[in-house]
């Protein structure tokens, strides 16, 4: 288990989780990585840990470069267990190491582990620590996406270590974005943002502005998940996309999400799609019977219109629609225009639950549309007219 040098005397000592297929309900068909970094200087510094079940691999990579007794600092950018799970293993081997984190990070570590005997150095945004020929500068990014989240900038190497920021749940033989298909990596970065950081757009926007205010000159971004962005063009590409995603700006697109039992709701979904396309609106359509919720959310980032269709079951939302609504509400997309539609057999009105979710999220919306059993031609025409009025919003 060898470490890999990413810059002179700075090494990747992380692990690759090829078998990961789910992360907090987020489907990860290409696995993920838990990246940690070792900086060799007068003060030897390890940045972040890894998930506990892969601890030995991380420890072996560190040991291939330096004995644990020589480590001076352990920087903890984020205490979620995929990054901190093996910190007790590290501290047992390097009890002399001082942990650099923020106050929320210290409290989180104390809540997760027995920290008796651990030494802490508490930092805040703008603080720096000299480790010899290098200076570590810190930026706290609370609620991006935990209260303790922060980023570490290695000034002399123009290297940003942002933990969960700018990452991807994407496992590859490659370590750098430049060695993989760029569009595939960016697709995974967009999916990561949509399924993990979507609720924290304001915090992401603030973090980008703070980085600008601190004058950070970034030539490499080494996140804690996925591949490393290197070179000005890659760094600018991911920073620009984060700025766009965080702004909540939409591109006038539409997203249709639905489920169907006997085809009635599917017919309405097809009708909506045709009408939107006739109006020149780009549309993506997703059937919950065959798509995972996390595969759908990236389309929400730049969409204006969100249409959700439900087939009523036992006077309730269909379970897959209900699950999608719970997942989507947790990610709290902003500035959308919603429309609920669906079918029923005995009792109408269930789609009002979808409408209520739109209201709770602060979206604009148009009145729901429901039809009993199979929609006939006159109902299809009414729904077309309903869509035409909806897209005027």
Which labels suit this protein?
six-stranded mixed β-sheet, 12 helices, alpha/beta, 393 residues, single chain, 22 strands, seven-stranded mixed β-sheet
Major beta sheet, strand line-up: 1-2-7-8-9-10-11
For the residues shown, what is the average pLDDT? 96
* Uncertain stretches: none
Largest sheet: 7 strands, mixed
Structural class of the helix and strand makeup? alpha/beta
Report the β-strand fraction as a percent range: 15-25%
Task: Give the termini distance in whole angstroms.
Answer: 57 Å
Sum up the overall morphology in one term: elongated
- Tell me the number of strands: 22
Radius of gyration, whole Å: 24 Å
Helicity, as a percent range: 25-40%
H/I helix tally: 12
Explained architecture:
- It is a single chain.
- The chain has helices spanning about 55-65, 80-85, 85-95, 105-110, 180-195, 200-215, 230-245, 265-280, 295, 320-330, 350-360, 375-390; strands at about 5, 10, 15, 20-25, 25, 30-35, 35-40, 45, 70-75, 100, 120, 130, 135-140, 150-155, 160, 220, 230, 255-260, 285, 305-310, 335-345, 365-370.
- It has about 400 residues and is an alpha/beta fold.
- α11 (about 350-360) links the parallel β21 (about 335-345) and β22 (about 365-370).
- α5 (about 180-195) packs parallel to α7, α6 (about 200-215) packs across α7 (about 230-245) and α8 (about 265-280) packs across α12.
Short structural description:
By secondary structure, the chain is α/β, with parallel strands linked by helices.
Topology:
Elements: E1 4-7, E2 10-12, E3 15-17, E4 22-23, E5 26-27, E6 32-34, E7 37-39, E8 44-47, H1 55-63, E9 71-75, H2 81-84, H3 87-93, E10 98-101, H4 103-112, E11 119-122, E12 128-130, E13 135-140, E14 150-154, E15 159-161, H5 182-197, H6 201-213, E16 220-221, E17 229-230, H7 232-247, E18 253-258, H8 264-278, E19 283-287, H9 293-296, E20 303-311, H10 319-331, E21 337-344, H11 352-360, E22 364-372, H12 377-390
Helix pairs in contact: 5-7, 6-7, 8-12
